[in-house]
Amino acid sequence: MKEFTENVVADVQGLATKRVNENVSEKEQVVNKKVKCCLCGKEIEDWQTNNPFPISANGRCCSDCNSKIVIPLRLRLMRFDTKKED
Ligand SMILES: [Zn+2]
């Protein structure tokens, strides 16, 4: 019984280690993927990028450009749309 328990513990630990390793390699793949911001050209990690629409339909932009350019423009367009409907 002691042996059985030890084997199960070893299996569980093995699985846990395997899972952690898989997660790490997945994370590394994402982290290593660098993209250039289509607005300022700054190199950013893929997971940090934002959709630059409506400024650009293609590419990705950094969070700086997103908060300083893209979001204000979206808000302006939203207001403009609302005004038009009135
Ligand atoms: Zn940018």
What's this entry about, in short?
The protein has 86 residues and is mainly alpha-helical. It has helices at 2-32, 63-85, and strands at residues 34-36, 43-45. The protein has one domain (2-85).
State the domain count.
Answer: 1
Strand content: 5-15%
- Low-pLDDT runs of 5+ residues are none
Count of helix runs:
2
Mean pLDDT level? 80
Order of helices and strands: HEEH
- Terminal CA distance reads 78 Å
What do these coordinates show?
The chain contains 2 helices and 2 strands, in the order αββα. It has 86 residues and is mostly helical. The protein has one domain. Strands 1-2 form a two-stranded antiparallel sheet. Strand 1 (34-36) and strand 2 form a beta hairpin. The longest helix has 31 residues, at 2-32. It is elongated. The termini are far apart. The protein binds zinc ion. Zinc ion binds next to helix 2.
